[in-house]
Each structure stands twice: as C-alpha cells, then as structure tokens.
Amino acid sequence: MSIASVIGLAALDSGLYLKQSEVHGMSQRGGDVQSHLRISDKPVFSDLIPIGKGDLIISVEPMEALRYKSWLTKGGWIVTNSCTMENIPNYPQIEEIREEIFKIENHVFFDADAVANTIKSPRSGNMVVLGAASPYIGIQFEILEKAVRTHFLPKGTEIAEKNVLALHEGRKYSKYQD
Predict the structure, then answer these.
(1) Which CATH superfamily is domain 2-171 in?
(2) Would you state the pLDDT for residue 86?
C-alpha cells in the first residue's frame, strides 16, 4: 500500500494524470494486496490495467510477482524482492520461482530485506523495492524521494528519512541508473 501511495503522490506532484484501484483481499491474514496504477500525461479513463498492458510489476514477494506476470506487456519490467513469504502449503522452491522470473527479459530480483536490514530499517523493504523500480516508473527520482518523505512524515522525521535512505539503497539494484 505504501508503494502505491508514494507513486501516486509523486505522479500528482509531477502534474500527471492518475487512476488507482486496490484489492486488499485477505491482507490482514498474510494475503496479497494488489494495486493498479495508471499514470499518463493525458487523462486516464479506467483504473484497471488490462492483461498484457502493464509496463511494470513491483512486488515485495517473488511468488506474487509471478502471479501477476500475465498483466505485463512485452518489454515490461518485473522488480521483486527475492525473499519469500511461505504462507501456503506446497509453496514452490525459491529456485523454481527464480528460474521463472529470469525467463522474463526485464527483471530485477534481489534480497530487499537484506538491504533494509543493512541500513537498520527492516520495515523499509518495500521502499528498497520501490527504489530498485524507480528508473522504470517514468517519474523523476527527486519527486519520488519527496513523495516518500510526505508519505512517512506523519510517522516522524526519523522514519521518513530511513525510508528515503531505503529508496536510495534500492536504486543501486536497478539495472539502469542515472
């Protein structure tokens, strides 16, 4: 939810049009949360992304990235944390998941939890993943950084700055950097 909120804030701050849709499912019990964000320099008329038309899938869990890969357009990106949340029976082996993700030409697959722990901010893994996805969003990094501060500032300056640091650390894992 924080990833979608930050991207939404940054899109609006960039003067872009935005439509957003969220599905929470059983998130209170470890289930997935799905957000569709449609961002454009022209008016957007629908909040849902059609199958095969998504430019980017950002995921904090690799199995969830694969669950939604049918939404990805040819040439689109998957950016995902490699750490699993094994909350179902018969969860596939990480090697199998990795192999499937690596079949997608444009992917970033890395241990965002380890990066968050390195900066002593274990709850910032989502912002680490967002940082890795940042070159593929189409919004200036400085505006994303400002949006992270805006989103987390109600929780205190220290938490906001830890999340900004997480964004910067995650950016190092993207395939293309400014």
Answers:
(1) Pyruvate-ferredoxin oxidoreductase, PFOR, domain III (3.40.920.10)
(2) 80
